[in-house]
Write a structure and sequence with these properties.
The chain is an all-alpha fold. About 70% of the residues lie in helices and about 0% in strands.
């Protein structure tokens, strides 16, 4: 039964990932509009819920829950209380958000306990292949669209048409949002790099390197500052971990030499990142500028990327949400009640008029579960981080899988500083965050699955 369940979960993970990235690709997201989108979303939740119940059944004889499991259970309780307290606003949506969080958390967080590392790696390799194959087509089409100067425009809040090309700030291409699109590319690059290390199949390695080049090009041309920060942070973190692992392999550890070597390698990695950026961005941008049609100085120019608006309106959004938070500080507004609440109570406010989400995962957590939920989840991540530090201080060196999942976690946590709702939605980064943290926890506790049947 366990072996069959693992195969079903692998298929579910591939389907989950493909659905998630398809919502960021305009042609497929248009197809999912209406009843189709609702059916697909609920299929993901119901399927995940059923599989999570099977996971709990398999783990029914496990030892007593540890501190992290207790904290997660407490967080689900807090989220349930918040949903009840906000029953006047989006009760059905809040309950669906609670079910989404609970089912995904149970399935993905406990996955490393029921699936061996080898099978988990193979599952992620399949997911990376199928997802990147679909995503590569979007990246190539977007880059080709830019080079061929096939423009398109959208309406800004004032009703003026603005261009969405790299000449005016960033390349949207065929994606609904260049930030989410470029972060998807970053995640796929990490997955493919890990898969390359875990396979000897030459055609897959060639495909993976080609995919990495394609996705790197889109990331650079998206001109997303958030992703540049996430990429730089991930690279620096990985460099430090790899250097630390190498020093752990030696009998004597010289902390001074470790610090110097980490700094030197980190600077070299950042310099290489800047060089690659420059070699791709500036030549392609020059091509776009040469081919763009003549226009007036202020014709179709985006207002949210000018020098005096460096946060793209995020600072204003955050200030307004913090003002709103004061009205429900303990248990928050639950998953989907904040905007309906502010629209009803303050229809002339900035948030009611714009309907902006928080654009910050940590602020979303605070708004949706209040100080109580924020502290519980914060304690969970803090405890996991402390256990990781203790693990890395042990004599044995960290495995490649451990380094990968730690780097993946850091990348997503950095991304959360400027984007929202990773905890309570169906996103590829949600699945990978829960799985990565679950793997780190199981590795720290020595409770990784040891057999596949």
């Amino acid at each position: 039964m366990k072996n069959k369940l693992q195969r079903i979960i692998c298929c579910y993970i591939v389907f989950y990932a493909l659905y998630s990235v398809s919502t960021r690709f305009v042609p497929t997201s248009v197809l999912w509009e209406g009843p189709a989108a609702d059916i697909l979303y609920k299929t993901i939740i119901i399927g995940g819920g059923i599989l999570s119940l099977f996971c709990l059944y398999i783990l029914r004889n496990s030892r007593r829950p540890d501190a992290q499991t207790i904290l997660l259970g407490l967080f689900i309780l807090v989220l349930g209380i918040s949903s009840l307290l906000n029953y006047k606003y989006e009760l059905a949506g809040n309950i669906l958000g609670l079910a989404t969080f609970a089912s995904q958390l149970i399935l993905f967080y406990f996955l490393p306990k029921i699936m061996t590392e080898d099978r988990l790696v193979r599952c992620l390799r399949f997911m990376a292949f199928f997802t990147s194959f679909f995503w590569n087509m979007g990246c190539v089409a977007s880059l080709w669209q830019y080079i061929k100067n096939i423009h398109y425009t959208i309406l800004n809040p004032e009703g003026h048409r603005i261009r969405q090309g790299i000449v005016d700030g960033r390349l949207f291409g065929l994606f609904s949002d260049p930030n989410f699109a470029s972060f998807t590319s970053l995640i796929l690059i990490l997955l493919l790099l890990f898969a390359i290390r875990k396979t000897s199949f030459l055609p897959f390695k060639i495909y993976s390197w080609a995919s990495i080049v394609i996705n790197t090009c889109y990331i650079i041309m998206s001109n997303s500052r958030t992703i540049f920060i996430a990429a730089a942070g991930t690279i620096l973190f990985a460099v430090v971990l790899i250097t630390y692992k190498q020093h752990r392999c030696r009998e004597d550890i010289d902390l001074g030499r470790f610090f110097i070597q980490s700094t030197k390698r980190g600077l070299i990695a950042l310099a290489a990142m800047i060089v690659v950026y420059s070699l791709i961005f500036f030549p392609l941008r020059q091509v776009g500028q040469m081919m763009e049609p003549e226009r007036a100085v202020n014709d179709m120019v985006r207002e949210d990327v000018v020098a005096d608006n460096i946060t793209n309106n995020r600072s204003t959004i955050w200030k307004n949400y913090m003002s709103l938070y004061k009205e429900k500080p303990l248990f928050g507004f639950s998953v989907r009640s904040a905007l309906p609440y502010v629209t009803d109570k303050y229809p002339d406010s900035y948030l009611a008029k714009t309907q902006y989400v928080t654009h910050n995962g940590y602020l979303s957590l605070l708004m949706e579960t209040g100080a109580v939920g924020f502290c519980v989840m914060g304690a969970f991540f803090l405890l996991t981080a402390l256990q990781c530090l203790n693990q890395l201080r042990e004599k044995q060196t960290a495995s490649e899988s451990y380094l990968f999942f730690a780097s993946l976690t850091v990348s997503i946590l950095i991304f959360l500083m400027c984007f929202h709702d990773v905890f309570f939605t169906v996103n590829i980064e949600t699945m990978l965050l829960y799985t990565a943290v679950g793997y780190l926890h199981c590795s720290n506790k020595g409770s990784l699955a040891t057999q596949s049947a």
